[in-house]
Amino acid sequence: MTPKSAAAAARATVYGYPRQGQNRELKKAIEGYWKGRVTADALHATAAELRRSNRQQLADAGIHEVPTGDFSYYDHVLDTTVMVGAVPERHRAAVDADATDGYFAMARGTQEVAPLEMTKWFDTNYHYLVPELGPGTVFTADSTKQVTELKGALAQGLTARPVLLGPVTYLLLAKPAPGVPADFEPLTLLDRLLPVYAEVLADLRAAGADWVQLDEPALVQDRTPDELNAAERAYRELGALTDRSKLLVASYFDRLGDALPVLAKAPVEGIAVDFTEAAADNLEALAAVGGLPGKRLVAGVVNGRNVWINDLQKSLSTLGTLLGLADRVDVAASCSLLHVPLDTAAEKDIDPQILHWLAFARQKTAEVVTLAEGLVRGTDSITGELAANRAALASRAGSPITRDPAVRARAEAVTDADARRSQPYAERSAAQRAHLGLPLLPTTTIGSFPQTTELRTARADLRAGRIDTAGYEERIRTEIQEVISFQEKTGIDVLVHGEPERNDMVQYFAEQLTGYLATQHGWVQSYGTRYVRPPILAGDISRPEPMTVRWTSYAQSLSHRPVKGMLTGPVTMLAWSFVRDDQPLGDTARQVALALRDEVGDLEAAGTSVIQVDEPALRETLPLRATDRAAYLAWATEAFRLSTGAVRPDTQIHTHMCYAEFGDIVRAIDDLDADVISLEAARSHMQVARELAAHGYPREAGPGVYDIHSPRVPSAVEAADLLRTGLKAIPAERLWVNPDCGLKTRGWPETRASLENLVTAARTVRGELPAS
């Protein structure tokens, strides 16, 4: 096909869409089901209506081929586990008894069985449930969900494309099941898994699918020759099937590298490539393999992970280059729109001028459609859209909101000495032990306590004007008193104030820093029914006044035990925001770090002896390609040290990380030079403790013994067993006892019971230690 005819054939599509609904209807229905207020039939009816509405919105916007199968009650990787029948043995009875309850048992656990491990989806803030596989795993096909959702779209009269997680990525995301040797490689199960995918593909073809998309984002990471050979074999075998739809293999989040020739040669009909992340590399690689003659290329030219408007003219230029490289070029967002909010039209409090700089899922869909229109009919057909786009881009570039000369001058004046503590850790540790007087195996929590209905109501009443600031602050004081009292009675050693005044660990700070914008309805799924509203980083960052000192000092006035000051670190402030795309991330991180440095100094001056600067996103933001990591880790660790480097030796700096694979960044964790780090470890059975020990990590650490993403209450015996495992890797004088993460999402009854068990476990194991 010639470039002209390739353009004439161009269509608009997306890979996925936000699941929650305009008013988070899915979250409310699922949580109502968990609490017994919503029936299973009502839950499924709500989900069916949301799927129908999403598909219709896309079709009405001009999307020619809508995705199906991207919708999920909890997580699409968990959906794949169900599809291929890889249900862990401990969950089998629950799944057999009731498919819905069994599904949620795998996601959340029950009092009797632990859930699947949860970790980050590549370098996003979305969490997936990790498949557990072993040599004895038997796969069986269950295409019910995929076929049902496809038939729903076809019944609406729409052209639909089922989207499945590809077999190679599924296996690469998996881990050895409990009891299976740690060196077992799930990818060795590929030959056993491919026939199951073949069966699902046959079912989808029979149900009416013309195309099926198989997502293989793992192929944008560094892959070994064996892994690339597995991908080649997988798509050679799937491509050779006769009873199947046409196959579109999709990648996103980075450059394909060595995987591109593998896919280009595979007997599949289409490939989807991200042309927003490492666009030049993917373009060069595509040209180097001679393009994709005879294949469909779906070009992801609209950024599906950030909220800034697309540069339409630039994207059209990219698309024009691609026309000569494939039989047919279609236009898409770079990845599923799951990672952005639904609609800017709901935002009434953002300056209208700034709102024109933003594109959420509906606006990105419109951009995809506009680009396809321009590709097919020429730029004259989208003259108005191009003019409006140019004006919005120019408005943002020239806005004084984006630049503050004082902030930039301060950042440029930073020296290496500013990012270093005044004394080495050994000397600081001795000073801190003398100052704090803590026992062996000190107990603490990560920061937040349950956000009660009363707290959320008070916050809503304040926004609506039903109560004044004084009434709201009295509610906060009461909550802090209750949290401090509970911790003292329970016997926790280092307390927290519970963060009742904070709506979110990033948004709370963003609302008090210059340069950030907060949304009212910009919800994005983090995991399951947990939705967050990432703030938007629009300009240079500074801190006009203290943000946390008042409430931390109040909490400290209620107790003689140390109360931690709680801050969110610079990398996490970036990772869980929609960041600027007009300057390097490292420059923005330095600005945030300097703002936090001011806050740390004020906390210390107010008498706070323990200050925690959370960096749960340090691993999450790690580039997917190894060659890009050193530069990232250099500015990321410098930003943390810059925020904490000015404190006295006897002020103890903590940090926290959770739900990620830490083995890749142990050296960076060391480079943070924090005095204490707490990490998620319960679901992974203290794996991180072993990783720290293998590295020779010299500081104090608290691998978590309480999985807070499950409603189950761990017994004191269970927590003690985890502590004993931790002691095999970390000596008692450097081991802390804490939950995996903050307790914001938990209820008070389970929180009380779990923390009481945690303290009991610490006392039990402390009593087993040799007398010094």
Automatic annotation (TrEMBL):
L-homocysteine binds at residues 446-448, 499, 614. L-methionine binds at residues 446-448, 499, 614. Pathway: Amino-acid biosynthesis; L-methionine biosynthesis via de novo pathway; L-methionine from L-homocysteine (MetE route): step 1/1. Residues 13-323 form the Cobalamin-independent methionine synthase MetE N-terminal domain. The active site is at residue 709. Binds 1 zinc ion per subunit. The keyword Glycosyltransferase does not apply. It catalyses: 5-methyltetrahydropteroyltri-L-glutamate + L-homocysteine = tetrahydropteroyltri-L-glutamate + L-methionine. GO terms for biological process: methionine biosynthetic process; methylation. Keywords: Amino-acid biosynthesis, Metal-binding, Methionine biosynthesis, Methyltransferase, Repeat, Transferase, Zinc. Catalyzes the transfer of a methyl group from 5-methyltetrahydrofolate to homocysteine resulting in methionine formation. Belongs to the vitamin-B12 independent methionine synthase family. This is 5-methyltetrahydropteroyltriglutamate--homocysteine methyltransferase. The gene is metE.
